Structures are given as structure tokens and as C-alpha cells.
Amino acid sequence: MSTTRAKPKKPTLKVTPSSRVMNVSTSGVLRVNHSSTYARSINASVSRKSFSLAADSKILDKSSVQTPKHTVQVFDENGKDVTPQPLYQPDPAAVMSKHSKIFASDTSGGTMSDFYSTAYQTTTNASFAGPFTRSVFGSSTVSRGSQSTMESMNEEIEDPSSKRDISISLSDVQVRREEVKELIKEEMLDDVVDRYLIESETLWLLHMPAVSVSVDSEEAESVKERNNLYMELCKNRMGNDKYVERSMQTFNGAPKTKEVQSEAITMVDAATTATTWDMYDSFRSAGLGEAALSPDTDKASVPEIVSNHRLDPTRAPERTMSVISTTSIASASSSRIEIEPFVVPSEDEPDPELVLQSEKFQQDLFVMERIILENIYQPKLAAYRQLPTLEDPDSVPKVVPTVVSRREESSLDEESTLTPALERLWSFSCELTSGHNVSSMAWNKRNPDLLAVGYGQFDFKDQKSGLICCWSLKNPTWPERVFTCESGVTTLDFSASNASQLAVGMHDGSIATYNVESREKTPVIDSSDCAHKHTSPVWQVRWIDHERGASGEDKGETLISVSADGRISKWFLRKGLDCIDLMKLKRTRNEKDKKQVGDKEKKSEALISRQAPGLCFDFHPTDSNIYIAGTEEGHIHKCSCSYNEQFLETYIAHKGPLYRITWSPFCSDVFLSCSSDWTIQLWRQDLFTPVLGFTSTQSAVYDVMWSPKWATVFGAVNEGRVEIWDLGASILDPTIVSLASPGVKLTSLLFATETDCILVGDSDGQVSIYQLKNLTVGEGTQVAALEDIIGSTLASQL
Amino acid sequence: MAEVEETLKRIQGQKGVQGIIIVNAEGIPIKTTLDNSSTVQYAGLIHQLVMKARTTVRDIDPQNDLTFLRVRSKKNEIMIAPDKDYFLIVIQNPSD
């Protein structure tokens, strides 16, 4: 089948088998004697086409029965199918009509398919002839046995859908040219095909009927006659009723020019910047989730964005941009929100008040104040936090003395060794507190920057109303909270479990707890309703964490207080504050002073209470069952919570009331006591005489505290000075001494937990922060050092 | 209200504080301790700066917002607490 499958260099069509078909069909067509001009033209066209095709065809055989499945396909060199697509899809109706036309003629050897294929040809060329031909061929007769088909086809002319089927069933191959495509099967290529060469019939290429006839021909007579007839006809035409001339006139409508005028279309330029946050804001304010909106509202929100963008910074229209006016036009479709600013209510007057009173403004002020203060106090705070202080590069360099506090016996600074000193950083004070005596200070257990200071007089005379101030490190000029109390505050302590709870003991014997988080000025609870409340000043309160749970007592913290009426009470909450007595501090008889005391005791027992006023106490750091208490007599009693009748031990050494007693946080056997007899005593639990005594001046020692960082260091404050003792350095003299300003008595001392600073409160209401500088404590573990000292001291005493 | 006044007074009395300006959302000063011309100048200029700063912060992350702005210069420091209703501006010279 190589012949049929052509591979031309240029994509020309190979239609070999069909060429013969054409020939046949053409002739068949010509036989149709419905010689309307249309048909003729078609025929002519067909014939022309077939001629051209025939010229191209290589084979002019007549082997009719070939595999009908020849579709012409055009392949280029590469074998790709570049068969041109038909530009025209023949109307099936027209095709069918062509079919009918074709079938009308009887062919000797053509198959249906051949006719069909020709029909395609004709339709391409003369599609316009379709309807006409239909009418023409509707009456054509089918000579061959395809009559039935013809009729069916005629009937189905109006039914295009079935035509297709018929066409397909009839012929499997179409494809001439670019009309229909069908694959050439591979098998076809290998088939052996017979070709027969025969003489075809005469091919009429052109038939122009003659217009004139020679006189001698047979037709001459008839022609002449006909001509004569015609001439008569023409003559008769004039005035004959059969021939009437008529003319028609069509009306031409009068043209009219119509003009339309419209308003000028205003063009505005709208511009917007859609920033990321703008879009985020508008999505948020639309109240829907972003996922739901996305592309739909993108368009819709764009104009809104424009308006919103203008909205937020502007409430009044006269503001800045003139773009507003254009955007309002451009975004007319967006929500009514944008109408508001243009209404101009100008509510300026209430606004500032609202602004000033808003919460946010207060908060901002608060923060601003802190920031300003941080600017001012930055070097001091940095020193407190033990950060390196930076010099402000723009400030005028001042000579900043490294040590501000007065040092008396300290030598001049040498490059190699710097003497330990106290550097005063700043002080907490304000006009509220001036004149009040600082009686106690306590750090908050949770926030190490929060300090509670209680103000109250120690003496019973000139009692003022007490004051509690909560100071924050971030604002040294104004306390965060101020609580006023009726009577002077003598002691306070923060709770560890509930960090905002502050217990306060007062000079009139009442105990109250405050919640420092709230802004309320009143205590949460007060002991004034309690029947067993203290009748004398409460000298110390402490929150003690009882860890034992065996005895059925609740775990957790309880409030213990000691007061001058000789009771150590444990307070708990049960429909109000109530207490039970842990211990009654009885007056003990000192066997040594039996002689004198005894008589006086007997006499005075009747008058004075049996209790000894308790001034201080401290619970053992590890065993919360044991505590020591100091009395006004100068006795130290070691007691246990389980026994509330008897002391475990009594330590007698002081000759005056004990102001402070405190266990060492490092050595659990050692405690310190200070009293108004100018001494500080260091005790060990098992010894009934003090191990060490410290005296430096002749003034009562009001407060003593172990350093939380070094086991051998403690601080003491007496009336005129602050002393820092380092037992590792010297047991005779304090390592650092700092004098108070004249006229002011120092009353309390507190070590800062995380930094090397101490707080000293004085009688003028100031709490000063000092930094311990250059305090080098000896090497070795602190505890061991302390015990060594104690051991060596004991050894030396023996 | 009294607390606000007190705090303002305290701030004004702190060391080095040159002036406090409170501006509302439109840029009109509500309260000021400086003279009028300076106030107006500060208000206008700082408003633009804050807008720019806020846009910057929010462009990077729309869920973020500007809470405080400090401008440190050779001679002083301008601290601005912006809000959608107002600006609080304090000018301080810390080395005074």
C-alpha cells in the first residue's frame, strides 16, 4: 500500500484511490439531467476539482474494492501527522443532499463511499449550493439499488443526527484533502493490492452548449422555428395583457440625525497604599476569619481599606490630605463608617477629659514615670543589680566619687587593695514618709524588687498613725502602695505562699493582713475582733511554713506573732482571725541573781504579769518546730511548738531587752542576738553561754541580720551607725562602718537577697540603699569558716 | 483623676524633665507644660514620627503594635507613649 500512503516532500494530499472515484462520480453527476445552473456549477466545480486531483494522482486505476479505509494523511519527513484539519465541517444536511445527488446517478463500479467522498468535495467547494441542491435533488431519482437508501436519506435530510451514522456506516473512508481524517491502519500498508488499468470513460471537461446552429444541421429547422416563435412573442409583448410592466418603489425612511448629550464622566484618580497591617485590620474589623473571606472580599475590602486608612488617623476632615475628598468619591461603595468623619461633630471638648481619665493613660503615665526615673537613676540601679555602669557619652563628665558614704577608719584607696566600704546608692523616701520612723522592712518573697516598709514609733510616746509603704525598685521617689494604719506599725512580713499578702503587727496589739495587689487601702482582715488579740504591742510577726502534716495540723503557712503581753500566738483564719497561744513567756527566775530578784519577783509578781514581754523570735530554718524567742528580760528561750508550757532551753546572757534574734541561714546551730545592752551575741544551740560577743559602741543595737550570701558576715545597726561584721576578717571590729547623718537614728536593717546591698531604715523615714563594695570574704566554704571560728574561739576559751 | 494629676506633677518635678505634652489623636495638644509654639511643633513632628514607627512595626507583623518610643539625642531624650487616642510625650534631659 505504499502507493496509497504517500509521503510527499511537501504536504500535498494523496488521494489516490479516490481519484478514480472522482472520475466515476463526475461522470455520474453529469448524467443527472437536472440541469439547473446550480447543479451545473457544482458539477463544473466538481469536475475541476477532480481534474486537479487526477493530475496529482499517481494511480488511475479502478480498483474499486480496496480497503475503504483510506484516509488521507499527510506526513512530513519526521513522520509526524501534519494532516491539515478541515477548515470547513460540512453540514451533514448538505452532505446528505450530496449523497442523494450522487446516488441518483448510477455508477458502474463506484461504491457508496466514493460518492460520499465526492460529496464532501463538493460541499467544500460549494457549500452554498447545499440548500439548493437539496431541493433539486429532492426530486432526483435513484437508479441504482440505493434507492431505499436515498429515500431514507432524503427523509433524513432534516435529521442531521442520523445522517452521520449513515454516512459512517456507509463509508469508512472519507478524507480527501483536509476534510476528514482517519487513520491509515498499519495493516493496510502491507496488504497486497491489485491495480487494474483500464480505459476510463470519456471525460467531459467542458461542455458549452452552442448558441448558434448551422443552417445545415438537423436542428436548424427547429431552431429557426423556435426563434420565430420567440420573435413573435416579443412583438406581442407590447400591449399584451400577459405582460405588464410594473415597478415598485421602496420607501426610504427619512434619515434623521439624533444627538445625545450626556454628562461628562468624571474621572478620578484613586490611589491607596495597602499595607500589611491595613489589610489585617480590615479583616479583623470585618469580624470574620481570614480564611473565610480571602479572595471574595479582596475586591470589596479594597475600597474599605481606603476609607479605613483615612479613618484612623483622622477624625476631622480638615486634617492633612486632600486625598480624602477623592477617596470618598472613589470609595463610595464602602461602608457607612466613612461617613462619620465627614459629618464633623467636632467633639473636642469631652475628648481630653476622657483621654486623661482613661485607664490606659494612667498606665502610660505610670510607665513613663518609671522610665524617666530609670533615666535618672540608671547608674545607681545598675550598680544595685551589679551591672557595669556605663558612662553617658554626652553628659558632662563629672567626678563621681566612688564612695559617697562617710567612712571613718577606712584608709585611702590604694590601687592594689580597696577597702571594703558601703556606697550609698539611693534612698526610698517621699514626703509622705518623712518624719516617720522606719520600724521594719521586708522583701516580697516572689518579686525581689518589691519592698514593704513599715513606719511606726518604737516608744509608746508620740505615737503617730502608722504607715505602710510598698516600694518598688523601679520608682524610688514614690511608693507603689501606701496604707495608713491607726497605730504605728512595728513589724511586717510578706507571706511566701501568697505573695501579695502582707501581715502587719501594730503598736496597739492588732494584727492585720493586707493585699498589696489591690488598690484598696483597707486591710483584708484585722484582728481587732478577735477575743484573744494581743493587748500590747506586737513586736514581731512572721509567716512560718509548717511542713509537717502528721499531727493533723494543716500544712502551709501560719502567722506567728509575739507581743509584749508575753504570748506567742499562732493565728489562723476561722471566721475571722483567731489565734491560739503557742507559748506564754513566763518570767524565769535567774538562778544567778536569785537573791535580789527573788524578793522583787515575789513582790512584783502580784503587780506585774507573770509574762515576760516577748520582743522577738525566730524559727529554726530547717526544723519548723523549734524556735527561739527573746524577751525583755534579756532571756532567750528555746521552745517547741509541741510544748506550750515549757521552754526547752533558756539562754541567759543579755542584760537588756533583746531586740533581735536570728538563726544563721548557713549553720543551723548558730544564732545571733542583739540587745540594748550594746552587745551582739553569737550563740550555739548547745551552749548556754554565748560563743562570741561583739561590742563596738555604746549604743543599743536595734537590729542585726545575717547576710544571706556569706556565712560569716552579718550586719548590725545601732543608733548611730551601720556595721558590717565579717567574722572571717575580724571578730573584734566591724569590717565596715557607716555613720548615720546627724540627728537621725538608724533603726532597721535588711539585706538584699540577690545583690550585695543593704537597706537601712532610719528614724526620719528614709530607707537608704547601700552597696557593699570590696567585701572580700575569705575562701573556703563559709560554713566551715564559721565553724572554725567558733571552734577556735571555744578552744581558746577553755 | 486626682491620681493622674499627682503623677503628672511628680513627673514634672523629676530631675531633668523639660516638658510634658499630651496630644490627642488629631494632633491637638490637650495638656502641656511647654510654650505654645514648641508644643505645636513637637506635636506635629512627633505625630508623623509615631505614625511611621507604628507602620513599620505593624508591617513586619500585623499582630504587633507600637507601645513605646524613645528618641535619644545629644541634648535630651524624647519619650513617647502612643495610643490610639492620645500621645504622651515627655522631654527629659537626663544629665541635668
UniProtKB/TrEMBL annotation, chain A:
GO terms for cellular component: axonemal dynein complex; dynein axonemal particle. It holds the Pfam family WD40. One of its GO terms (molecular function) is dynein light chain binding. Residues 397-470 form the Ig-like domain. GO terms for biological process: cilium movement. WD repeats lie at residues 651-683. It comes from the Eukaryota. It is found in: Cytoplasm, Cytoskeleton, Flagellum axoneme; Dynein axonemal particle. The keyword Repeat applies. Gene3D superfamilies: YVTN repeat-like/Quinoprotein amine dehydrogenase. The keyword Ligase does not apply. Keywords: Cell projection, Cilium, Cytoplasm, Cytoskeleton, Flagellum, Repeat, WD repeat. InterPro entries: Dynein_IC, Ig-like_dom, WD40/YVTN_repeat-like_dom_sf, WD40_repeat_dom_sf, WD40_rpt. PANTHER family: DYNEIN AXONEMAL INTERMEDIATE CHAIN 4, DYNEIN INTERMEDIATE CHAIN. This is Dynein axonemal intermediate chain 4. It comes from Oncorhynchus mykiss (Rainbow trout).
UniProtKB/TrEMBL annotation, chain B:
Residues 4-92 form the Roadblock/LAMTOR2 domain. SUPFAM superfamilies: Roadblock/LC7 domain. Coiled coil: none annotated. The keyword Cytoplasm applies. GO terms for molecular function: dynein intermediate chain binding. Pfam families: Robl_LC7. GO terms for cellular component: cytoplasm; cytoplasmic dynein complex; microtubule. It comes from the Eukaryota. Keywords: Cytoplasm, Cytoskeleton, Dynein, Microtubule, Motor protein, Transport. The keyword Transport applies. One of its GO terms (biological process) is microtubule-based movement. Belongs to the GAMAD family. Acts as one of several non-catalytic accessory components of the cytoplasmic dynein 1 complex that are thought to be involved in linking dynein to cargos and to adapter proteins that regulate dynein function. Cytoplasmic dynein 1 acts as a motor for the intracellular retrograde motility of vesicles and organelles along microtubules. This is Dynein light chain roadblock. The lineage of its organism: Eukaryota, Metazoa, Chordata, Craniata, Vertebrata.
